[in-house]
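Chain A, query sequence.
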Amino acid sequence: MTVTPGQQLALEKIAASLSTTVIGIDEVGMGCWAGPVTVAGVVVPKGWDAEGVEDSKALSPRQRKKAEGNIKAQVLSYAIFSASHEEVDRQGVGSTRDRLTEQVALQLLQPFPDALIVQDGEVPAVIGARPQNMVWLAKADVLVPAVSAASILAKVCRDEFMVAMSRLYPGYAFERNMGYGVPAHIEGLRKLGPCPIHRISYKPVKRFLVR
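Chain A, predicted structure.
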């Protein structure tokens, strides 16, 4: 991929950091109509890389599951937190993501207080660290292996939950769409209405509520 000037500056900041460890953080489920938001983080030595670790969206489910095992065996520590659809409805998806990110970061910083935190996208709050120890980088899940690893852990965790929910709430194809608003999911909503794990605060779901 082409690296933008802003991304290049962020990568240079990571390279120049005196921290010997990196915490990569990423989330999944922000745009879903059903199920939780999940945030994962890993702690790795600076410069760490591993075979098969790349952006979770570029991997098949089997490749992600294999990579998950490799990641958990290799990283110094990891943390995964999820918030339910009900929390998303009450607090908003952005606030929910920020709270989970803080939980992940603070847990991993306890044993590694000097770690450099790298997050995908832009998170406005400084979480548990001095500003100089944080980097917000668009496409970090592609450019930084620690964030790629976090994205894989988050996606495998959430996908497994949604597959389990597909057996409890059949008819929405959760096992294939993981709660995103694809045609099979919309057809399920049209026929069945929202199920107990739908985010009823989302407009595409709200229109199927019985009035």
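The longest strand covers residues 37-45. Strands lie at 21-28, 37-45, 77-83, 116-120, 134-137.
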